[in-house]
Design a protein that fits this description.
By secondary structure, the protein is of the alpha/beta class. The chain has a single domain, classed as Glycosidases (TIM Barrel), CATH 3.20.20. Helix content is 39%, strand content 14%. It has an eight-stranded parallel beta barrel with strand order 1-2-3-4-5-7-9-10, surrounded by five helices. It has a two-stranded parallel ribbon with strand order 6-8.
Length: 431
């Protein structure tokens, strides 16, 4: 129920021809970041102090496959970072697991801080600019047990954590994002099949609270966005100020947002505008130096909900429309809503067919180049993901990685798409 991508209802929709008038740019500008991404909980393994680890191990659980050792990146980050650099990238997006830094409230792990500093130092050693997310979906178990972001009491601990991390390793960061996709629950609320699930959230929260012995349990990924979102926006604003102060303003700070290319059903824009007002606008009104765009597909939006996919729509392993052109449309839409730079912080496809991944990358990057040619300030293309990983309620089924990971030996095997995107990165353009 809480898959960050699997539950997004999407429908095939062509990008308007009028938005496709620009020739492909010769190449990305100097300083443009090309890279891949990964989230600590999905790849490191053994994040036992996290709220998700607790939720994985209650009975019954929402997760058919536990994360377990994941990709064992915790012990193998040096080889993975070196491999990413070998493809030709100049950036890498990663997250820090708060529960490794503060496994119990007020108990700071210096070893945890030093671990992530070594990760960032390794990125720099190999010429990869670290784009760091402070929270990527998960929080410490103690934080969720206290109500998480459904109470304003959660703001101060989060701000203190951001300040601590920035003071310890901010000198190595290229950019920072307070949250990854904090608008995801608002986005999911537009999926018709999710309406009933959202109605069951209070009962689900109560069941987990009883199982873990925490009556106020509120894990962010299943919390009611109507309660949580305004508190997270305030937390972001205060953390933004804290990060800027702790770093001396040496790197940009923003937030990454889950965004779908929403097309109006029968030309009626009312639903698109209503949805945008819930999913995008509140976050654009919050402080930030950039907007992180994360796009995977398109949808057709009726007055109050998304509409079904048209018959015959090609879908990915996640069950939503194959729509590489959607990234361009989303960038253009966001550019009409803000003057801030746009960073593409996630874009990719879950598929076993790597030829479809290569085709997806080609069209998506061409879309970025169209936007650059039209003067839109796009600063990065960061692909999700470097490795096949644990996909929340989908377990290890969907394959998003440019690199395959053997589930028993952890041997990494690059796919042709890794070399293809690396060639684009080295050339700064689609050939």
């Amino acid at each position: 129920m809480i898959d960050r991508r699997a539950l997004i209802t999407s429908s095939a929709a062509a990008v308007a021809a009028a938005a496709m008038t620009s020739p492909v740019a010769a190449r990305a500008p100097a300083g443009f970041l090309w890279g891949t991404a990964g989230a600590a909980y999905q790849i490191e393994g053994g994040n036992v102090a996290s709220d998700l680890w607790a939720m994985e191990h209650v009975k019954p659980t929402l997760f058919p496959t536990p994360s377990g050792d994941a990709d064992d990146v915790y012990n193998r980050f040096e080889q993975d970072i070196a491999m990413a650099a070998s493809f030709g990238f100049n950036a890498h997006r990663l997250s820090i697991e708060w529960s490794r830094i503060e496994p119990e409230r007020g108990q700071i792990s210096l070893a945890g801080l030093d671990y992530y500093r070594r990760v960032l130092e390794t990125c720099r050693k190999h010429g990869l600019a670290p784009v760091v997310t402070y929270i990527h979906a998960t929080t410490p178990r103690w934080f969720a047990a206290g109500g998480g972001f459904t109470t304003t009491d959660g703001i101060a601990p989060f701000v203190a954590y951001c300040d601590l991390v920035t003071r310890h390793m901010g000198d190595l960061m290229e950019a920072g994002a307070t949250f990854n996709e904090p608008n995801i629950n608002a986005l999911l609320s537009w999926a018709p099949e999710m309406r009933q699930a959202f109605g069951n959230l209070p009962a689900l929260q109560q069941a987990i609270a009883t199982a873990v012995g925490a009556p106020h349990w509120a894990s962010p990924i299943i919390a009611d966005f109507r309660v949580q979102q305004p508190i997270m926006i305030e937390a972001h604003a205060r953390a933004y100020d804290a990060i800027k102060a702790a770093s001396g303003g040496r790197f940009p700070v923003g937030v990454t947002l889950a965004l779908i290319d929403d097309q109006p059903f029968n030309g009626d824009m009312s639903g698109v505008l209503l949805k945008r007002g819930q999913v995008l606008t509140p976050w654009l009104n919050a402080p930030g130096d950039f907007v992180g765009v994360q796009n995977y597909s398109s949808s057709i939006v009726g007055p109050t909900s998304n509409m079904p996919d048209p018959p015959g729509t090609e879908v990915t392993q996640m069950g939503y429309a194959y729509a590489p052109q959607a990234l361009e449309a989303v960038i253009r839409m966001v550019a009409t809503q803000t003057r801030r730079p746009i960073w593409v912080t996630e874009n990719g496809i879950g598929t076993e067919d790597d030829t479809r991944r290569v085709a997806f990358i080609k069209r998506a990057v061409e879309g970025v180049q169209h936007c650059l040619a039209d003067g839109i300030d796009v600063r990065s293309y960061i692909h999700w993901s470097l490795l096949d990983n644990w996909e929340w309620t989908r377990g290890y089924g969907p394959k998003f990685g440019l690199v395959a990971v053997d589930r028993e030996t952890f041997v990494r095997t690059p796919k042709p798409s890794a070399s293809y995107l690396g060639q684009i990165a080295k050339a700064g353009r689609v050939a």
